[in-house]
Amino acid sequence: MENKYIYNEQDITTDIIMKIENIVTLVAERQSGDFDKAYRDFLESKAYYALRNPESLMWAESAEFIADTYCEERIS
């Protein structure tokens, strides 16, 4: 089975993958500087699951917005 993210019959898989890299880079810079740890932590977040759901439209938001959302999630 191939994992693709489709929205309005458009393949947005590359967009989501690139967005994840940008978000994790921002989070790593803000926190520990450790990309791998930031990546592992992000994969367990609600923000990540929303990003992977094309219907949520989270993928259309900026990396900065999603990183902020993720950081707020971690605080609460």
Name the descriptors:
76 residues, 2 strands, globular
Describe this structure in words.
- The longest helix has 18 residues, at 13-30.
- The chain is 62% helix and 5% strand.
- It is mainly α and 76 residues long.
- Helix 1 (13-30) crosses helix 2.
- The chain has one domain (7-75).
- Strand 1 (6-7) and strand 2 (10-11) form a beta hairpin.
- The protein has four helices and two strands; from the N terminus they run E-E-H-H-H-H.
- A two-stranded antiparallel ribbon has the order 1-2.
In terms of topology, how is this protein built?
Layout: E1 6-7, E2 10-11, H1 13-30, H2 35-43, H3 46-52, H4 63-75
Antiparallel strand pairs: 1-2
Helix pairs in contact: 1-2, 1-4, 3-4
Q: Tell me the total number of β-strands.
A: 2
Biggest pleated sheet: 2 strands, antiparallel
Task: Tell the overall outline.
Answer: globular
Spans of at least 5 consecutive residues whose pLDDT stays below 50 are none
Strand order in the largest sheet = 1-2
Radius of gyration over all CA atoms, rounded: 12 Å
Number of helices: 4
**Amount of helix:** 55-70%
Order of helices and strands: EEHHHH
Q: Return the domain count.
A: 1
Mean pLDDT, all residues: 93
Q: Indicate the structural class.
A: mainly alpha
* β-strand amount: 5-15%
Described by its quaternary structure, the protein is single chain
